[in-house]
Amino acid sequence: MRGLSPRIAVVVVYTAAMCMNGLDSTIVNPALLTIARDFGEPVSAANTVEVAFLVALAVALPVAGWLGDRLGTKKVFLGALAVFTAASAVCGLAQDLPTLVLARVVQGVAGGLLTPVGMTLLFRAFPPHERMKLSKVLIVPTALMPALGPPLGGFLTEHLSWHWLFFVNVPIGAAAVLLGLFGVREHVEGTEGPFDLTGFLLATPALGLLTYALGFGPAHGWTTPSVLVSGTLGLVLLASGCVHLLRARTPLLEVRLLADKVFASATVLALVTSAGLMGVLFAFPLLYQAALGASALDAGLSVFPEALGLMLASQIADRLLPRLGPRWLAVPALVLATAVFGALAVPGVAENAWAVRALMFCVGLVLGTAVLTVQIAGFADVPPPAMGQAMALFTIVRTLGGALGIAAVAAVISAWGGSGTHETDPAPYRAAIAVTAGLVALGTLGALRMPKEAPAPPPFDEEPEAVAA
Q1: Distance CA 23, CA 372 (A)
Q2: Average pLDDT of 153-170?
Q3: pTM of this prediction?
Q4: Burial class of residue 66 in the structure, from the number of CB atoms within 10 Å of its CB (0-12 exposed, 13-18 middle, 19+ buried)
């Protein structure tokens, strides 16, 4: 591996790890009924397999930036990847539900570290003017893998067994760890002062409780004691945590980075676009089933063209960003995305299968162009020492945005009388999709605060930012 470029190694290892993480966020859903039957448990109990993963992932996010800066991004990333791989093997070997849930918790904690630390590793390896090229890499784990999860999960469960949903990670993870050990260079940014224990004790449970409440609230009711207590306590801890982080000399999360106008705009855009996208991906399959009587598999496949559109968006953004600049590429893309989201809610559209495929492709194309543009531009002025903290903060906001989007559309569907199971009236689902269009429209206001010019390249004799300490 001596002849392997460290930057190529970073790209390969990051892509492999994020593909595993992205796939695991959706691949288990089609197998929950089978898992429940195999263990002799009710489906509601099997659902804890997914909830445990998502809550654990959220809990790990606040400490990711601090760990990467203190211990080194390579060490933390490869350590998390090794734990994720080992936990996948334990999931596949599980003989009872408690073992599977516990292994998914470990997977979630490791996955929560992988995303922000991996992005930090990647962005430190490439200077701002080269990061647009990374859009082709970023889009694979963030778009294609989650979209492939449900059909691949259904195929493996039906033709092999649900155990293979987790075994597929083992050879990929082992190879990625091996490549990373020899091909990726270390970067230790260092941190000043002691560990922010108060920030950790406030932010970590806050995100876990909010994720739990947002996950169960729409289905179980917002006034259910567990949901109400979790949501209320989570909000109180989050507010207290933000106050503390603003005042602390060495905070666990550097929320003062939001004072930068461009980074703050990118973070707000991540919140609303993630909410809109995850909301429409949740609501539209339900509308498709209500309007056409389609099966769950057909409904899941109906949104797959969105991933193909996202793949093409990476090519378009790469070419247009240097010419148009972040503002005049993101704003029109978000306006078009609002129109496409609105079109999905128009009566008669869901009844036309080809119209559905075309519009879902456009969702990925236009929204993906805006999201990639904003993400690249938002980090252009973040100084290298703050990259780990900025990436952790950005990932937390984006993750909460997705959870909020799903909770919002589920609440609208419930308020309009839709149950999401045997309803034949498509009106509640169209109303929910209209809400997602409104969320994307809000993003246009944030995009107007993005810079007009793309990041300029450094002088010809300036070395790209080093990836080694």
Answers
A1: 20
A2: 81
A3: 0.74
A4: buried
